[in-house]
Design a protein that fits this description.
heterotrimer; A mainly alpha; B alpha/beta; C mainly alpha; A: mainly alpha; MetI-like fold; 13 helices; C: mainly alpha; two-stranded antiparallel sheet; 2 strands
Chain lengths: 327, 279, 332
């Protein structure tokens, strides 16, 4: 029997013309819904900007915004921050908060960045596959510990049992709430982040570069420190930026360990207040809607948002460029 | 262990094709590189078996053979580059200047400084041209600026790249063309003043003009260096080498004077390969 | 100085020594960091001993340290997890599907992608401010909250506009907070599905959505679930955004007054009221106890932390279980 093809002679063949069909409509609707989901992220960003700007820069009448009540000059150049005082003694100089934030970020960077990079080098260059498979989940665990837990650890363990005995012996006066503890704790928190981001970047360096190094008579140290890390430098810096931006935005650990006194100081043993700690501290109590105190929250949040956003943007751009180089 | 191995060698003389081929009437000289009964394993897979080959000083030896025949593996085992890969193992012996390079007390770093290597793909470091070439001497501990400059210039001249790059030493090496990058890699390898230069298909990714320049360069370099080159371009092997070794399926099938091997091979497999009936 | 001879060899010894030191420095840093984790867990565990018992789990809070309990926060956190998951999973996976399967690499797509990566880096406290303004106060919509009653045929739901400090506000805030991470991890999972699967389905005449719905999503599901659970567990540990919303640190009742399985069975309609009720959460309670002037509350806080870590561990365990279970099944 000769195998005849499906007899289509009497049936009309399926038209290839685009016509209306319910299926096509459904496809389009689904496409639009999915696009809507993706747009939600843009909407979130816009909402953040809208909220921060209307409360701090340009108010929607009849409301006035923060900078319509308080002068730019006082905010950026004033050195006293007392928004919770009675109106006569209110001062809105953000310098102490920024200074506190930078102090915490600086200390955390000194601890977290080198440690994170060294872990990344260990994991990508030295560790056996077995050691890697043990260390990586443990680092993820370290990254998964909630920040309030780190805060507790800093306040109830690090300060009383490590820092105070150590620095008291060296003759420093150190308080129960101090910037050093906050910085150290935040530094510990960013270690896993730096490690995992930098490790990705280091592993993206083509192994042919490593081989070329070895073929020139390089030791493993020469290859790691003089070829791999420099070749990945832009990516490593991007991961540093991301981590520092995280330090700036970190709230709970700092609010718990470093205290809530907006001092304009770089003394790591003193109690300070960061921008984030200020926001949480104020929101813990009742805030009168429409008060300058409430608006000051948005102004501080705007500064915080702009600082972290610019750092994140720069590091994203660096990372994207870096990926293009090696892929 | 070593003793046992030596003993078995004594009672059971090598069965491999230990072929001593004199390059250009230099038969009295001891070989620069000598492998005897060498085997190589990736885990349990044996990639090379029973390779016995002597490579003469200041000559070009070409390794040819079909893909996956083990010629690159052999080349990489001459400066222990395979050490980097987990689970590899070498049996038999590989000697450079009569010294077993797989002996316990051998410093791989020093070995690789003496036995340089150039790879198939050019791999400039993302640094300046100067930093690329001076990398080897610098990690070896040379810090004197004048000395470094001198070495860089000499190496680049040897690699026939000096005239093209002498005014742009501070520019990134990534900006060079493919052929220039490969010559830069050769210059970089020469800067550590090696005695042996291993080349793993150094011209296979280049256009004909750049290939010709690399071949000229190899011709120049053999005055002072022992060169072992892997190639799957038989014309290239015929053009530049004195000795050619033919590998097939992890074995050394035949080795001889290049002219003789290409015109009058003794083994059937070699003949099939060079006449194009195989691989 | 030369490249050969004793000079070189002397330096070689030094180079090897330096290399060894460096390797050990890197290794020690790694172990030290992991050691901190151990110290952290140990010091907290020791503080919690004697304070963590069944009663602690089922009591609501009290000013008397020995009578304090975490029931309200535990139930609040469970409600937050549930509602956040219900909202963030479809939205996040939808966005990921759009970006991976539908979007062409236009400027718009690039912008959305960059925007998502940046949102992932926005401090959580800024989300708190956003949630406070948008959900809790609704831009100061009304001076005084107005009560609404939604009449369903079997029950009614009471809520206020603006929403105020209720579970739903908290869940919406946490949804916005966790969405970027959910999207990014879902994208990674989708990317790991081989293109051949899509091509095969399309070649059979399936439409794009049919291909996504029946081939790509099922194949990527384990990866998506793992990512979603991990990002949810991050959100659950967050204190700052909830604190900024003004959620109470200590409450004496659970959302909807559902304090046990029995409550939920006896009066299921309470389940619908719960999202519109006030709440506290485990991390908030911990923060409250840490700030409590009575020093003995540090033990209560430690006990609370142990409960929080156990909840997170269970979530992570679920993620690992899913990953292990399905990774073996599917081999490309």
């Amino acid at each position: 029997m000769s195998s005849a093809g499906p007899s289509r002679r009497d049936n009309k063949p399926i038209s290839l013309q685009r016509t209306f069909s319910w299926q096509r409509l459904r496809e389009e609707v689904i496409r639009c819904l999915l696009f809507g989901c993706a747009l939600l992220s843009v909407a979130t960003t816009l909402a953040i900007i809208f909220v921060l700007v209307t409360e701090s820069l340009v108010g929607i009448p009849p409301q006035t915004a923060f900078f319509q009540d308080v002068s730019w000059r006082e905010f950026f150049f004033g050195t006293t921050w007392t928004p919770q005082f009675a109106e006569a003694q209110q001062h809105f100089g953000i310098a102490p908060l920024v200074c506190g934030t930078l102090l915490i970020t600086g200390i955390s960077g000194l601890i977290g960045l080198p440690a994170g990079l060294m872990i990344a080098v260990y994991l990508s260059e030295y560790a056996t596959p077995r050691a890697r498979s043990i260390c990586k989940p443990l680092l993820e665990l370290l990254a998964g510990v909630p920040t309030v837990v780190y805060g507790y650890f800093g306040l109830r363990f690090l300060t009383p049992y490590v820092l105070i005995p150590f620095f008291k012996q060296m003759g420093f006066s150190i308080y129960g709430f101090n910037a050093l503890c906050g910085g150290i704790v935040v530094g510990i928190m960013i270690i896993p982040m730096v490690a995992s981001l930098s490790e990705d970047v280091l592993r993206a360096v083509p192994s042919s570069l490593r081989e070329s190094g070895y073929a020139l008579g390089a030791t493993k140290f020469d290859v790691s420190a003089r070829i791999v890390v420099p070749s990945a430098l832009s990516g490593v810096l991007a991961s540093f930026l991301l981590a520092l931006s995280r330090s700036i935005g970190e709230t709970m650990a700092v609010a718990i360990c470093a205290g809530n006194s907006p001092n304009l100081t770089l003394n790591p043993f003193a109690s300070i207040q960061t921008m984030t700690a200020f926001i949480v501290n104020v929101m813990q109590g009742e805030v009168v809607a429409g008060s300058t105190l409430e608006k000051s929250l948005y102004a501080v949040a705007l500064v915080l948002f702009l600082m972290t956003l610019s750092m994140n943007l720069v590091s994203q751009i660096i990372l994207n460029r870096y990926r293009e180089v090696y892929q | 262990m070593a003793l046992v191995k030596a003993f078995t060698q004594f009672v059971d003389p090598p069965t491999g094709t230990t072929t001593d081929v004199a390059g250009g009437g230099a038969s009295v000289r001891s070989p620069k590189i000598e492998t005897s009964q060498m085997g190589f394993f990736y885990g349990t897979h044996q990639a090379l078996r029973d390779i016995s080959l002597k490579i003469n000083e200041c000559a070009v030896t070409a390794l040819i053979g079909p893909s996956g025949c083990g010629k690159s593996t052999y080349l990489r085992s001459l400066n222990r580059m395979n050490d980097i890969i987990e689970g590899t193992r070498v049996t038999g012996s590989v000697k450079v200047d009569g010294e077993d390079i797989y002996a316990k007390d051998v410093d791989v770093v020093s070995l690789r400084k003496r036995v340089g290597m150039v790879f198939q793909k050019s791999t400039p470091f993302p640094k300046s041209i100067f930093d690329n070439v001076s990398f080897g001497p610098r990690i070896a501990g040379l810090t004197n600026r004048a000395q470094l400059t001198e070495i860089v210039e000499k190496s680049l001249q040897q690699a026939a790249l000096w005239n093209e790059v002498k005014d742009r030493m501070r520019e990134s090496a990534m900006a060079l063309s493919g052929g220039q990058q490969q010559r830069l890699c050769i210059a970089r390898a020469l800067a550590t003043s090696p005695e042996i230069l291993l080349m793993d298909e150094p011209a296979s990714a280049l256009d004909p003009a750049s290939t010709a320049r690399i071949e000229d360069l190899i011709f120049e370099l053999k005055q002072n260096y022992t060169i072992v080159i892997v190639t799957h371009n038989m014309q290239q092997a015929a053009r530049i080498s004195e000795i050619t070794a033919f590998f097939c399926q992890g074995r050394l099938v035949e080795v001889g004077q290049t002219k003789q091997l290409f015109t009058n091979p003794t083994q059937k497999e070699t003949e099939d390969y060079i006449t194009g009936r195989f691989g | 100085m030369s490249l050969h001879g004793p000079d070189y060899e002397r330096r070689l010894v030094w180079r090897h020594f330096l290399g060894l030191m460096f390797e050990w420095a890197c290794r020690l840093t790694t172990f030290l960091s992991l050691g901190i984790l151990a110290v952290l867990l140990f010091s907290i565990g020791r503080q919690a001993i004697g304070w963590l018992d069944w009663g602690f789990l089922v009591r609501s809070n009290s000013y008397e340290p020995r009578e304090a309990g975490i029931m309200a926060g535990l139930m609040g956190s469970l409600w937050l997890i549930l509602l956040t998951a219900i909202m963030s999973v479809p939205l996040g996976v939808g966005a990921a599907v759009y970006l991976e399967e539908y979007a062409k690499p236009t400027r718009m797509t690039k912008f959305i992608q960059l925007n998502i990566s940046n949102l992932a880096g926005v401090p959580s406290i800024v989300y708190g401010i956003l949630g406070f303004t948008v959900f809790v106060r609704m831009f100061g919509l009304r001076d005084r909250p107005e009560e609404f009653i939604l009449d369903l045929w079997f029950t009614e739901i009471r809520f206020f506009l603006p929403l105020g400090r209720i579970v739903l506000s908290g869940a919406c805030t946490l949804t916005l907070l966790s969405l970027p991470v959910v999207i990014i991890s879902a994208q990674e999972a989708l990317r790991s599905v081989p293109a051949s699967l899509r091509h095969a389905s399309l070649a059979l005449g399936a439409t794009k959505w049919q291909t996504v719905r029946h081939q790509v999503l099922p194949a990527a599901l384990p990866g998506i679930l793992t990512g979603v659970i991990l990002s949810l567990s991050r959100a659950i540990g967050e204190t700052a955004p909830l604190a900024v919303l003004g959620a109470a640190a200590q409450l004496s009742f659970a959302p909807g007054r559902i304090e046990s399985v029995g409550d939920a069975i006896q009066n299921p309609s309470k389940m619908l009221q719960a999202p519109f009720d006030q709440f506290t959460a485990i991390p908030l309670q911990i923060y409250g106890w840490i700030n409590d002037p009575k020093p003995v509350f540090e033990h209560v806080a430690a006990a609370g932390i142990v409960v929080l870590l156990v909840v997170l561990m269970l979530l992570n365990g679920a993620a690992i279980f899913i990953r292990q279970r399905f990774q073996k099944k599917i081999r490309w």
